[in-house]
Design goal:
mainly alpha; about 70% helix; extended
Length: about 160
């Protein structure tokens, strides 16, 4: 791990690196192979961009999944701005992400069962549209708990 930005000694000693590599290979021997080690070339990038079958997924990614990022990034700041304490804010993030994890597991199994990923991501937009509408049109004087509920359901979207 030694390099110009980590220093001459690096993060690990040589012995620690040997132990680490052996443990990783013992846990998963397939990590020792050199398969799938090719870099991304411009030709591969171009073929993925011109693959018409992937365009609906790209479109859904740009239209549905991009608006989620600011809500997720500023969730704790929004809760603090709503008047919750730091401890309350930290505790209130748990249910939102628990909903997300539950939805992730549930919809992953459904998509494998029906073998259709696009239908699942389409349901994501159906889930999020009323939530974003509620977030946009809630009155300014609505309770902090109402805004929290909407934000938690946005973060707990089906993915």
């Amino acid at each position: 791990t030694a390099s110009w930005f980590r220093g001459r000694k690096g993060w690990f000693t040589e012995r620690e690196e040997v132990v680490m590599v052996n443990r990783i290979l013992r846990d998963d021997p397939s990590k020792g192979g050199m398969h799938n080690r090719q870099g991304l070339t411009l030709k591969l990038l171009w073929s993925s961009l011109t693959d018409v079958d992937l365009w609906p997924i790209y479109l859904m990614g740009f239209t549905v999944l991009m608006p989620l990022r600011p809500v997720m990034a500023y969730f704790t700041l929004t809760l603090r701005n709503l008047g919750f304490t730091t401890l309350q804010t930290n505790l209130l993030t748990v249910p939102a992400f628990a909903i997300f994890i539950f939805q992730l597991i549930f919809w992953s199994r459904i998509s494998e069962r029906i073998n259709n990923r696009f239908l699942i991501i389409s349901f994501c937009s159906v889930w999020l549209f009323p939530m974003f509408m509620a977030l946009a049109f809630l009155p300014a004087d609505v309770s902090a708990w109402s805004k929290y509920a909407v934000l938690a359901l946005i973060i707990g979207y089906p993915y």
